[in-house]
Every structure is written in structure tokens, then in C-alpha cells.
């Protein structure tokens, strides 16, 4: 009995698996390095519009992740940055907390030289990225200078309806039915042989 039903296992596995997702990674243009003015204050300072990050995204794509990436420090001032947030079309995302050792260090700290970062963007703003562009503004939250290098967006997408457990397309259904038919014929043939020669 176990051998008889073993022929159905591949067919059932294909039915349950669905079609694998068609994933893609999209990267925007890279903005010019930004070296802000030096502010000797801890109050919030709005630096305003810094640039537009553009990218090509398919009209029917589904965003599964979005990240703001770059470096703490620039080629001109490579060692650290003041605390700041990045604002994308009304959404604020903290990039560096002021005096956090991960993004702040003196010139004597070589380990901070152009340290890269990747900050996940909230899924609440993903739909706003479907138009293929996002304006960047900077909000300083600590004394010193904002030093932002190689700023860009990285977006992860998948084609709609192609995730795990998706309903198979008509061609897949046809293959599955053929598989069931072939398995059934094989089982029937074995039973008839057993009756004839048993």
C-alpha cells in the first residue's frame, strides 16, 4: 500500500508548493555627499531638501523591503556625523543617534572611517515608493555636522501572486492532473497484474 501511494508524493508536493517568487533588488541613483554646516547646539535643525532618489520599479511589483543606505562620514569629512534623521516624503527615519558610538567618533578613531549603514524603512511608506522616486530631507538632532555619503535606496520586490502557497496557474493545474492520471493508471496496472498472476 505504501509503495502504491508513493507515486502521488511528487504530485502533491508540487500542488502545495505553488510557484516560486520572482524576486528583484532595485537600487536608486546615488546622491552627492552631504557635508552640513557646523551647529554648536542640540536643538533640532531642518536642513531641508537634499536630493531625489529615483529608481525603476515594475507597475505590478510588490515591495517586500526597503532600506536607506550610505556611509557615516564622507570623503571630505570621513570620521563621523552629528545625529540626524532622514525624511522621505513625510516619513522620518532615525539614521544616527547623537553621540552613539556606532556613527559618532573623533578623528583619532580610524574605525569610523566611512562606516556603512543600512536602515530599514517602515512598511507604512512602501506604497509611496511605487511611483519610482523619493525626495530626501535631513533633520539634525545634535551639535556638529551632518556627514552623509553615498546615500541611496535599496528596494526588494516580488511579482504579485507568486509567493509561497500561491494558487498554481492553469498550465500547472494541467500538469498536476496528468500526474494524478499517470499515477492512477500505474496503480491500476499493478492491481490487474496481481489478479492475473496471483
User: Any idea how many domains?
Assistant: 2
Q: Give average pLDDT, whole number.
A: 80
**What is the CATH topology assignment of the largest domain?**
Jelly Rolls
What CATH architecture of the largest domain do you see? Sandwich
Main β sheet profile:
5 strands, antiparallel
What does this structure look like?
- The chain is α+β, with helices and mostly antiparallel strands.
- It folds into two domains: 51 residues; 136 residues, Sandwich (Jelly Rolls), CATH 2.60.120.
- It has three helices and nine strands; from the N terminus they run ααβββββββββα.
- Strands 1, 2, 4, 7 and 9 form a five-stranded antiparallel β-sheet that branches.
- α2 packs antiparallel against α3.
- The model has no long low-confidence stretch (mean pLDDT 80).
Summarize this structure briefly:
The chain is of the alpha+beta class and 198 residues long.
Amino acid at each position: 500500500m505504501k509503495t502504491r501511494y508513493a507515486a502521488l508524493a511528487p504530485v502533491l508536493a508540487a500542488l502545495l508548493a505553488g510557484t516560486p517568487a520572482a524576486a528583484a533588488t532595485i537600487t536608486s541613483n546615488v546622491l552627492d555627499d552631504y557635508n552640513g554646516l557646523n551647529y554648536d547646539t542640540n536643538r533640532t535643525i531642518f536642513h531641508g531638501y537634499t536630493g531625489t532618489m529615483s529608481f525603476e520599479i515594475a507597475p505590478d511589483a510588490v515591495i517586500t523591503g526597503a532600506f536607506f543606505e550610505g556611509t557615516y562620514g564622507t570623503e571630505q569629512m570621513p570620521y563621523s556625523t552629528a545625529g540626524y534623521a532622514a525624511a522621505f516624503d513625510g516619513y522620518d527615519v532615525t539614521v544616527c543617534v547623537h553621540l552613539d558610538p556606532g556613527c559618532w567618533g573623533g578623528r583619532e578613531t580610524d574605525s569610523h572611517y566611512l562606516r556603512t549603514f543600512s536602515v530599514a524603512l517602515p512598511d507604512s511608506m512602501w506604497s509611496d515608493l511605487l511611483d519610482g522616486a523619493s525626495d530626501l530631507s535631513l533633520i539634525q538632532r545634535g551639535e556638529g555636522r551632518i556627514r552623509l555619503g553615498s546615500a541611496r535606496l535599496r528596494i526588494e520586490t516580488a511579482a504579485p501572486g507568486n509567493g509561497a502557497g500561491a494558487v498554481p496557474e492553469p498550465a500547472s493545474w494541467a500538469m498536476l492532473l496528468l500526474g494524478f492520471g499517470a499515477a492512477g493508471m500505474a496503480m491500476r496496472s499493478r492491481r490487474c497484474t496481481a489478479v492475473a498472476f496471483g
